[in-house]
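User: I'm new to structure prediction. If I give you an amino acid sequence, what do you actually give back? Let's try with this one:
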Amino acid sequence: MFRFVRIFKPKSKKKKILLIVLSIVTILMIAGDWALSVMVYNENFNLRFESYEPLTPHVDDFDGLQRTKYEFRSDKGQKLAGYLYQSGEDQHGIIVMAHGFGGGGHSSYMDCANYFASHGYYVFSYDATGNDESEGEGVGGLPQGVIDLDHAITFVEESGNFPNLPIALFGHSWGGYSVCSVLTYHPEVKAVIACSGFNASASLFEAEGKKQAGNGIYLMLPFVKLHEKIRYGKYASNTAMDGFAKSNAAIKIVHSFDDEVVPVEYGYDIYYEKYRDDSRFSFVPLENKGHNYFNDETYRNAFHSELDAWLQTLDYNYHAEENRERFSEDKASYIYQHLDQEKWYHSLNLELFGDFVDFYDAHM
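Assistant: Good question. You get back a string of structure tokens that encode the predicted 3D arrangement of the chain. For your 364 residues, that looks like this:
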């Protein structure tokens, strides 16, 4: 018996060593994939964004528009800059606007704020964490948009600085996701318009990742979701669909079927499948409008063509690192001299926004 045990003991020991080695390798591979996933996520989303000043509108560009600046704090105590826009009198609601991702803060949506303000609404718009006038070294991640909006709504409702009027929400892209998801925490909101939004925080990472890594992106997604859960807690797993389920708000979903930034299967299709027969939902499918469709692009496209032609006249390599500052100054100078601000800042799709105002009027 003892001889039998001695004969097989070395094999058992080798097997244990092999299992230990495989376990270590597996753990290292998982840790490596996790670290890589977080690194890629941060490189894409934990960035700071500033509006491009030469193309940024100002309140003086809109006749009769007034704004008052406020500061409020978000989840980690960071100060966010917000503005109350108004034009005229007899406003019958407050629209809280959430901006998109990557272009800086709320300023690029000032024409939207102006339209709503001139049609009977106060508009409270703000720069999310890591954008323009708000604090934060970077955005951090997409759930931060929901967190900031949660704090913005609470500030409007509880600070005592604003009239006691019904609250509505308006958001585009990242903001479109945020205005739907935040309904979980603010079921008192009366109406929501979500444009080009997505259902879950990881959706944008998945959509963009598939373009670059194909199905390999699905190896990263579990770690991205875990990273968001650790960092943002309940906000990370809360989706637009969760928000809809917690709310009785009227919802308008707008999306173009050719959107390559947020494909319809990550938002519109999901919502339509469940709520197409629900009377509190209205769906606006668009064709060949892309991700941004608030403006008539005729003049903007023409100006970009003129800018491209100007680039060809430069007598230096504007891609070279040593010419970066010179090119930045030259480009800004060209825009300031040649941009028709009236055409650039006043190109809103009036039919679309007229429909938006009718929607708010019906539900506020």
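You can read the tokens as a compact description of the fold. Here is one thing that stands out. The chain has 13 helices and eight strands.
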